[in-house]
């Protein structure tokens, strides 16, 4: 859980437990097998989805983007209905998630991203910590229910071998030259760093200290670069002219800033053997099959449920 928590929160951020308003209450927007979803819950989740959309795609214009808003509202409704079904089914299957489990998961998440990162996350998602704990609880129910429903799903050795044979390109690592770089904002900064390199300072250490590219954490390592690599032309052309161990004598200017580029070792194209990748393929195919089985299971739950949409009443 600890490693995948950020992804889960992004993909499944909306799991809010339904309320218990009385039937016939005008505040109820839907019932799912007799269990209510309230307008407050809908509004809270809708606003969260809207915030999530805007954080990825930019601000929504209430006047011009009516279709987008309509789609977000429909998704909010559909998701909340499904979440109630998941909770109900998990309870039927005897799946129990304690408050301590959820609190431990949240603590691990906080430790991972730090106090300021957590505050930013809460603000970005538009949730309170109480709502976040609720979401995590339903998410754990979801994962445990999925595991139970798909426990009999298997992938045969023949399927794994066929996938490998049919997708040779995926398992072929292209040849090329390993490239490192340091990216800064100005030509002056770049030239100062070139001087430090000439004086014998370590390229990787300088990358970690001065580069503004995320690759700085790996000493500027961008991996293997070849003619097919999707880098801007100025950078790629300069990088591929270098011989192993060589560093550009002048800063290379691109739309991102000024680069100092270093070439590492050349490598030939290499295809991974079946034995090297068979477990990875098996896991991938198994997850795909489990996802499909569980998707159909949830669809069947929805088809069989007594769902009353009160939004237009």
Show the helix and strand layout:
Layout: H1 5-11, E1 28-32, E2 35-38, H2 39-57, H3 66-92, H4 99-125, H5 129-149, H6 157-166, E3 172-173, E4 176-184, H7 187-198, H8 203-210, E5 221-225, H9 233-240, E6 252-254, E7 257-267, E8 270-271, H10 274-304, E9 307-309
Antiparallel strand pairs: 1-2, 1-9, 3-8, 4-5, 4-7, 6-7
Helix pairs in contact: 2-3, 3-5, 4-5, 6-10
Short structural summary:
The chain has 10 helices and 9 strands. With 313 residues, it is an alpha+beta fold.
CATH top level class name of the largest domain:
Mainly Alpha
Structural class, please? alpha+beta
Biggest sheet descriptor: 4 strands, antiparallel
How many domains in all?
2
Give your account of this protein's structure.
By secondary structure, the protein is of the alpha+beta class. It folds into two domains: 5-154 and 281-309, Orthogonal Bundle (Triger factor/SurA peptide-binding fold), CATH 1.10.4030; 175-268, Chitinase A, domain 3 (Roll). The chain is built from ten helices and nine strands. A four-stranded antiparallel β-sheet has the order 5-4-7-6. Strand 1 (28-32) and strand 2 form a beta hairpin. The longest helix has 31 residues, at 274-304.
Salient structural properties:
single chain; 313 residues; alpha+beta; Triger factor/SurA peptide-binding fold; Chitinase A, domain 3; 2 domains; 4-stranded antiparallel beta sheet; 3-stranded antiparallel beta sheet; 10 helices
